Hints:
Layout: H1 2-7, H2 18-27, E1 33-36, H3 44-54, E2 60-64, H4 68-76, E3 81-84, H5 89-106
Helix pairs in contact: 2-3
Amino acid sequence: xxxxxxxxxxxxxxxxxxxxxxxxxxxxxxxxxxxxxxxxxxxxxxxxxxxxxxxxxxxxxxxxxxxxxxxxxxxxxxxxxxxxxxxxxxxxxxxxxxxxxxxxxxxxxx
Length: 110
């Protein structure tokens, strides 16, 4: 993911768990969160729930290799998009660009 996204000109921040990701979202100018659903401490679903409660317009892409049900739950909790692992580089880039564009369109109205 790093090579694909940085190669497309995106600046990346890395968090080792959901708590770190939430703190980073609050303290940095983050436009999009990409989270794996399986993480230590605070998992991806819980991260999505907290982000959407505190920041309803937060853009989140959830990724998982565990199955369709987990991704459906992420969508129900407010994920902007979901991707199944293993990730296809073209799909990743397309989904990131689509979600960022939707976020840009929404932002002026907020």
